[in-house]
Structure formats: structure tokens, C-alpha cells
Design brief:
Helix content is about 40%, strand content about 15%. With about 100 residues, the chain is of the alpha+beta class. The chain has a three-stranded antiparallel beta sheet. α1 packs antiparallel against α2, α2 crosses α3 and α2 packs across α4.
């Protein structure tokens, strides 16, 4: 089955995708996206971890610190938008911009 991903340009073109594995990784690090707590999205460490969890599906060697180095302060609005799109898709919605197919 093909999974929807959102294209995001960081150090290179990458695909941001959230599934059960990424939600579990986040939960292990104290971030529960299903709780609806908006404060989680304001913490720089959480932002880095949330993006990492959405990228690790395509590169298992990727580290959170690597992702942090890819995101400049000027990129935060774009990253937040792409994160929102990818999360909406993961929760069963659809997003029109930036979608691509990810491998199974």
C-alpha cells in the first residue's frame, strides 16, 4: 500500500510521513500528538523531534541533532506548515499541496 507523504526541502528534498511507528517514537520521547496539547508544538526540542520522527522512515540512520542542523530559524514557519499537512494526512485527512507517494 502506498502512503501519502509531504515533500519538504531541508538539506535536500525529503518526505515527511507519520505512521504508527513515528507516533510511537514520539510517545517514547514524551510527545503525545494525540493529546491535543498545543504547547508541545512551541518547544524547539519537540519541533526537532517531531520532524525527525516524520523523516526517519526514509533514513533509519538519521539523528535528531542532524534534523536540528537542517532547520534554520527562518524555516520554522515552513516546517510548521509541512508538519501540519503531513499530520493531517496521517489522521485520515487530505492535503492538496506538497503531497507525494512514499514507498511502503
Amino acid at each position: 500500500m502506498k502512503r501519502q507523504a509531504v515533500s519538504i526541502t531541508l538539506d535536500k528534498e525529503r518526505s515527511l510521513h507519520y505512521d504508527l511507528n513515528s507516533l510511537a517514537l514520539l510517545k517514547e520521547r514524551g510527545i503525545d500528538l494525540l493529546s491535543g496539547e498545543a504547547d508541545q508544538l512551541r518547544d524547539p526540542g519537540n519541533i526537532r523531534t517531531m520532524v525527525w520522527a516524520g523523516l526517519v522512515h526514509e533514513d533509519a540512520t538519521l539523528k535528531e541533532v542532524d534534523v536540528g542542523a537542517m532547520i534554520g530559524l527562518g524555516d520554522l514557519a515552513m516546517v510548521a506548515e509541512k508538519f501540519g499537512e503531513a499530520l493531517e494526512i496521517a489522521m485520515g485527512g487530505s492535503s492538496e499541496s506538497g503531497n507525494m507517494e512514499a514507498s511502503p
